[in-house]
Amino acid sequence: MNAPAIRIRDLWVNFNHVPALEDINLDIREGSYVGILGPNGAGKSTLLKVILGLIPPSQGEVLVFGENPRKLRLAGSLIGYLPQKPLSNPRFPVSVLDVVLMGRYGRIGLCRRPSRRDVEIARENLARLGILPLAERPIGELSGGEQQRVFIARALCLEPRLLVLDEPTISLDACAQDDLYELVHGFKEEMNLTVLIVSHDIGAVARHVDDVVCLNRRVHVHEPPPIGRLALESTFGCSVEYLFHGEIPHRVVRRDE
């Protein structure tokens, strides 16, 4: 049996002696598309940052493709990452192509100029996302949905084995959200990626991913969708109801909301 892409054992993360993550044990299969679901403050982004090697565990072991994630971060060539707020200054005068080329620096190094092949790879990923005509536009002139596609193209430009997306649909409308999940699924198949995606959208999780991790400081559930009411109540810490649009639940609310 192949080793998992991500293996986590007895993981604890404490901030000022307060647990943010408690006793996490988790295996993520290589090539799987995994949604991480949970309420605000559940530790979802913290878990991603541990996997990325940005936060050290207080206790326990984390292996990504058999390596310590901090070692992989220094190597800079296996994990593509889209944070919640990838654009800190929307007025920064940089083109879409330049933003995507930043994704190559993990492979070519910060002090080296991109080669012709690096530019070709950047343009190929812009084409994958359907935004190659925007290559010379300033990033700040794009819509929220267009910007998200740019930053996904940047993450793919690294040619990663693992793609990590932290709430990539938070500023998108329903149609754009569904399109993005479909695009990511296509990239997973085409590029043989393992994908972790944090979301609050139970409907998107149910329709698109292979497995769901329900997280609220600890893992309450790790299984394929659909996820039942008891698992969601355990995760969110309250009685819940599903709101439906068609056959798929698309929102979870308190039972008395």
Can you tag this structure with a few keywords?
6-stranded mixed beta sheet, alpha/beta, 3-stranded antiparallel beta sheet, 257 residues, 9 helices, 33% helix
Major sheet summary line: 6 strands, mixed
What's the rounded overall pLDDT mean?
Answer: 84
Radius of gyration: 18 Å
| DSSP helical segment count | 9
Basic shape: globular
Q: Please report the total strand number as a whole number.
A: 11
Helicity, in percent?
25-40%
Adjacency order of strands in the biggest sheet: 5-6-7-3-8-9
pLDDT below 50 for ≥5 consecutive residues: which ranges? 241-257
Class of secondary structure makeup: alpha/beta
**Ends: how far apart?**
46 Å
Strand content: 25-35%
What is the H/E order? EEEHEHEHHHHEHEHEEHEE
Structure overview:
The C terminus is likely disordered. The chain is globular, with a radius of gyration of 18 Å. It contains nine helices and eleven strands. The protein has 257 residues and is α/β, with parallel strands linked by helices.
Topology:
Layout: E1 6-15, E2 18-28, E3 33-37, H1 44-51, E4 59-64, H2 69-75, E5 79-82, H3 96-101, H4 105-108, H5 116-128, H6 144-157, E6 162-166, H7 174-191, E7 194-199, H8 202-208, E8 211-216, E9 218-223, H9 229-236, E10 240-245, E11 248-254
